Amino acid sequence: MAPSEVSRGRTLLASVRLAVLQFLADPQWLVPSMIAPVVFGLVAYELFRGSGANFALYAVLGAGMMSMWGQTLYGSGWATGQDRELGTLEPTLSAPTPYLWVVMGRVVWNTVSGLIGGAIVYVVVVASYGRPLSVPNPVGFVLMFVFVIVTLAAVGIVFAAWYVYTRYAGFVQNVGEFAFYVGTGCMFPVILLPFWTNPVSLAFPPTLAVDALRYVSIPGYQGLSWGFWGDVAGALATTAVYLAVAGTVFHRVEKHVLETGNLSEW
Amino acid sequence: MSNGIAIETRGVHRSFSSRKGFLFNEVVATEALRGVDLQVPAGEIFGLLGPNGAGKTTLTKILATLLLPTSGQALVLGHNVATEALALRPKIGLVLGGERGLYNRISARENLRYFADLYGLPLARRTGRIDEVLARVGLSDAADRRVEEFSRGMKQKLHIARGILHEPRVLFLDEPTIGLDPKSARETRKLIRGLVAEGVTIFLTTHYMFEAEELCRQIAVLSKGRIVARDTVAGLRRLVGGDRTMELEAYGFEDAEIGRIKGMPGVSRLVAEEFGPRLRLTLRLRTNELLPDELLRQLPGHPELTIRERRTSLEDIYLDLVEEEAN
Predict the structure, then answer these.
(1) Do B226 and B89 belong together in one domain?
(2) What is the model's pLDDT at position A220?
(3) Residue in A closest to B61 by C-alpha
(4) Which of A55, A75, A263, B72 is deepest in the core (most CB within 10 A)?
(5) Same domain, yes or no, for B199 and B268?
(6) Is the ipTM reported for this complex over the cut 0.85?
């Protein structure tokens, strides 16, 4: 029985399935996926309650983004780090399938669990607020919400390549996590940050996507000066760059780790 | 690659660099392999022996496409391991063993299913094949238990199951029986013989000499990154000086006595080792000329002398070769 040519779709599905099984089997995932969103929701509610009529929307968006950030971006990179820890990176890379598609599968699952986190935040804030939120443009809201996830996933894939590259990726990511989080405007708009931080913020696709999401969600929102369509175009462009970089980086990283032989290091 | 050869290496070198120190660190290069030339015939068990740090795992990982050689060429089933890895990987299996390398929180069956998908096993055969390999390594009853509940031996079996899941034509086994109880180790050796009977080429590294002697048709000894000998066990016996080994133990021997024994007919090698208050002389004998009675006659001043005769073991050969290389 010779194995048939391995399809990318099958690799992706297998990776999603494994991620789900590990999620269900490991109680530690309950914290970032179920408990953290409740805490984020309550904190955001308290932070924004005095900021006018749209405070609940701010709270949902801010805390929702924070939850999704952790799940979608951090989770994708960390899953590869876990492969290093378990020693499963070697057998996975010795299979006849590009590792990029294994990572893509994890990103898909982390995106879904990020959405669940976002939904939990919504429920917590609405329950605290006492009435349902009204979004002026529900279709635009949903589209932009998915768009934000795609941009987070693009960064997540690049982070995953980093985890394959070196065992120190987790250390650097832990140090930078909250700086990235604030810098991309997940909790509050980047326009509130000092000007000199803006170029750094704009290097990350979620910055513009989150701003675009606020434009369609919050009436009268004044975000970055180029407006909603400028945000969308910029986010699309930077996401495309990230995905292109991820494809190239993964290819190079796979070659690099075969040269250095550090796959089994943890 | 010529016909009938499954694995061939030509001048394979591999060096690693590491950093020493903290602030002003220096890069230290270590040469793990120093020009390895090998040919492994298809359908055989080939044993690679060597002390810790000799380069066995490095060579295995290069052949299994997990590491690139620094220079030289390695071909497996005609594929260059450096440039044709994706084409080669479905045809080879790798068992590195140990406690790591498995998804601990999911079951053995789920572990295998994941890798079955990564290797593109036909969907219609996937479930049947997983059951088959689980039965073959004796894990059918534990198939649906989480791997974290497994003993080390069970994990080792699961590693083997994963290695053979996609029916590879060449299987790399890095110390496959380490951590197994004697019964499981014997079953694993039986499994290895069964795979060879099915036409699989096995590349085996092991520290257990009896295992290599029992399983391998050809053996190579790797020491300090170089192949110091490669032959059948019988050929290696000839190389180190003979089929027969005699051990003499007494409370010390005079230098003149040792010189006399060395010069006796058939003695090809003599090694002296201290064992507490006693000295042991190990003789490799090329022929059957020298008999214990003759030795007793030559060493009259040793009433406590004991003489044991046995067949030269692979362990003797291995130690001779490694010691020679070290000197």
Answers:
(1) yes
(2) 81
(3) A261
(4) A75
(5) no
(6) no
